[in-house]
Structures are given as structure tokens and as C-alpha cells.
Amino acid sequence: MSEFLQLMSQYPWLFITLSFIFAATIGSFLNVVIHRMPVMMKREWQQECNAYLEEYHASTLDKSLLKKLAAPIDNYPERYNLLVPGSACPKCGGKIKPWQNIPMLGWIMLKGQCAKCKAAISARYPVVEAFTGLLVAILAWHFGPNIQFALATLLTFILIALTFIDLDEMLLPDQLTLPLVWLGLLVNLSGTFTDLQSAIIGAVTGYLSLWSVFWLFKLLTGKEGMGYGDFKLMAVAGAWLGWQYLPLVILLSSILGAVVGIVLLIKKQQSGSLQIPFGPYIAAALYVALLSGDNIIAAYWGYVYGR
């Protein structure tokens, strides 16, 4: 292993290239997570709802209604998780062969169509793969072959999944955010990105910062401005980077969210009630802070004191 790391250190271009290829391959699996996890969650919610109704309200509800509520909420196979069934065309059910699943190249070879029924395959699949490869290649260039790169890569994989799930479903699964909080604290036991005290304070402060904004907005308007998943994702930022970086993450995510929101409002000519997921902007700000937080903060203070 040490010889491999030494080789990667001697040839950075090789390390960056291999990192891109590896990450693009993982990006193919992230496409599965992005699509299937919400389906699995909705099925779990339905089962919990049915169990509650049968236990406490079965005697007061019409049997036909209970039967209707218990009906499947989707057209996917009964056994449906991140591994089963294998990849297939959603229209004809034709199995996608292993060589057709090669990141980016598989979609190009198929010309964006199912080999069997010629139904269009979304271009987002190769985009997610390329995007994942690019972000990890940047991490490889920035950190080099070390433990920080490995952990930052894992964080980036999960942030990408969270981003696209939030864009699709307006939710940030606890199954992804909560483990990231605890992992961030464990990572910083040895001070990988910050000291443990800063990580603990960061996790608490990150959560409470958006939690406070949520309740203040709700008290003033009677509406909910964001979801609880956003609080947990901000806790992730604090746990991984420390409380010192939270102002930067909040500022960057707010600016990015405001710019995108304004563009969408103008483009769609809709009112201010347009719902925009905030998770992707927190994730983007966290990634930027992970790479360049020190430089951005130093540049800011240099500008302030240099005036």
C-alpha cells in the first residue's frame, strides 16, 4: 500500500485520472441510490401508516378503504432495494447488460436509447457520473493521496446523492444525513479536518442555526420556510469542518440559493411561493468550504483589514 501511495504521489496526473475513473464508477451506483431510495422510503411510510390504521382505527374505517390504502403505491417489483432488481429499462423491462453500464461510455454506446425498445434514457445518468468523477478529481488534485482525500471523497459521494434526491423529491433522507453527522465527529477525533471540540460545537450550532431561522420564519409568517433535513445537513457541515466555517457555509449557500431562486422566478414568471430545495446549496457550499474555506476566509479578513 505504501508503494502504491508513493507512486501516486510521484505521478499526480495518474492519481487524478484514477480518481476520476473510480468516482465515475461510483457515480453509476449513486444514480441507483438517487432513484431507489425515495421509492424505498415511501414504501416504508406506507407500511407504517397501514400498521397504525390497522392497530388503532380498523374498527372505524371501511374495509374497502383499508384495502385501497394497502395497495402498492408504485409499479416497481415487490422486492426493490439498492441491489435488487438489476438495472433495466423502465419502459420495456429489458435488462441492461454489464458493458452497457460502463459510466458515461455505456450511455454513449447506446446513443441514449434502450437497446431493446429504443426508449430514451435520461442524459442525467452520464451527467451524474461525470459530475461525480470531476468533483473527486478536484479533491485528488487538492489533497493528494492521503486520508483527508479518502474521507472527503466519501463525504462528496453522499452529498451528491443528497443533492439530487432533494432536487427530485424535496427531502433529505435521515438515512444519509444522520450517519454523516456522527461520521464527521468520528473523523475529527484525530483532528482530520478540525479539532473534536470545534466539530461538536459545529454540529450543534449548525443544526440550531437553521432551526432558529425556521421557527422565527414560522412565527412571523405562519409558514414553514425549510425542512428539518436542512438543519441536519448544516449539522453535517459543522461536524466535518467545525463551527468556524459555518458562517461561510451559510453565506455561500444563501447567495447561491438566492441567485438560482431569482433566475427561476424570472424564467417561470411565478410568484414568491416557488418552492426551492435548500439542501443542494448547503452541499455545494460545504464542498467549496472543504476545498478553499481557509483561503476564502483569509482573503475576506485581508480585505477587511486592508481597507
Mean pLDDT: 88
Global outline: globular
Rg computed from alpha carbons, rounded to a whole number of angstroms: 22 Å
Structural class: mainly alpha
E-strand count: 0
The percentage helix is: 55-70%
Family: Belongs to the peptidase A24 family.
Function: Plays an essential role in type IV pili and type II pseudopili formation by proteolytically removing the leader sequence from substrate proteins and subsequently monomethylating the alpha-amino group of the newly exposed N-terminal phenylalanine.
Domain Prepilin peptidase A24 N-terminal: 21-143
Organism: Shewanella corallii
Structure, explained:
The chain is mainly α and about 300 residues long. It has 2 domains: about 1-110, no CATH class; about 145-305, no CATH class. About 70% of the residues lie in helices and about 0% in strands. The protein has 11 helices and no strands. The protein has helices spanning about 1-10, 10-55, 65-70, 105-110, 125-145, 145-170, 175-185, 195-220, 230-240, 245-270, 280-305. α7 (about 175-185) packs antiparallel against α8 (about 195-220), α9 packs across α11 and α10 packs across α11 (about 280-305). It is globular, with a radius of gyration of 22 Å. The model has no long low-confidence stretch (mean pLDDT about 90). Keywords: Cell inner membrane, Cell membrane, Hydrolase, Membrane, Methyltransferase, Multifunctional enzyme, Protease, Transferase, Transmembrane, Transmembrane helix.
